[in-house]
Amino acid sequence: MTRLIVPKSISNSILPYLLESTLYPLEDKDGFMLFNEKEIEKSLNKIDALAIGMGWGKSEDNKKILSYILENYSIPIVIDADGLNTLAEMDLELLKNAKSKIILTPHPKEFERLSKINIEEILKNSVKIAEDFAKEYNIILLLKGHETIVTDGIETYTVKKGGAGMATAGSGDVLSGIIVGMIGKRKPTVKLVANCAYIAGLAGEIAEEKYTDISMRAHDTIECIPEAIKQIRI
Asked: Of the residues 1, 45, 179, 209, which has the maximum number of CB atoms within 10 A of its CB?
């Protein structure tokens, strides 16, 4: 079972689309969640894993929310999209001191903001820079690209799956959803996260074959996840 935590002001718009998920609205102002310790605790009650940041936007309250979660929760956490942009404006020492296993899933531009390393340098020496960053901050880093790098600074995998059709809005959210689903059931490891990237990439390849790289959407990748898993099992 999944739980979607959203600003209260948009909850009625989202409800018709939730067939298998539950919804927890948080009070907001102008569409941004407000920091409320008790409400955050209620929203995260009895969950096994968390993905945060997708569609989040940027606000000072987001920094408070993210900081509070990292300081107080031991569940595995995937941080993506605006969660990464929020984290980039915070003290990254939070990652070193976090109780939970943190998985960051940046594309190169987001990683530039996080690491403060020029994107050209990242692209030239991506494996080494990714490994050094992951080891320093005690996280699992998934650096997106034509060759996805997954590392904790000690163990490293590269995943060469996916296609041009996945360069569309929402594809990264699909990957984060696969990861959080898996780490809710199994211990988060570098190999497990790399497997998630492989599943997402293979599903994207299947979707591209069906719909072409021009026409496919992120939703098409989701629809092809069962076929990807079926192929892996063979």
From this structure: 179
**In the 8-state DSSP scheme, what is residue 35?**
P
Beta-carbon neighbour count of residue 11 at 10 Å?
16
Edge-to-edge strands of the sheet including 102-104?
A: 50-52, 77-79, 102-104, 140-143, 148-151, 156-159
Chain mean position to CA 6 = 16
Given a cut of 80, whether residue 234 has pLDDT beyond it is no
Residues 87-97 as b/e (b if ≥16 CB within 10 A, e otherwise) read: bbeeeeebbee
**pLDDT recorded at residue 20:** 84
For the packed helices 171-183 and 190-215, what is the interaxial angle rounded to 10 degrees? 150
**HSE toward the beta carbon, residue 27, CA cutoff 13 A:** 8
Collapsing DSSP to helix, strand or coil, 136 comes out as helix
Residue/partner pairs of 85-93 with CB below 8 Å, 24 or more apart: 85/53, 85/58, 85/110, 85/113, 86/53, 86/56, 86/58, 86/62, 87/114, 88/113, 88/114, 89/58, 89/63, 90/63, 90/66, 92/137
Please state whether the predicted TM-score (pTM) of the whole model is above 0.90.
yes
Over residues 134-182, the pLDDT tens digits come to 999 999 999 999 899 999 999 999 999 999 999 999 999 999 999 999 9
- Round to whole Å and give the CA distance between 135 and 152: 6
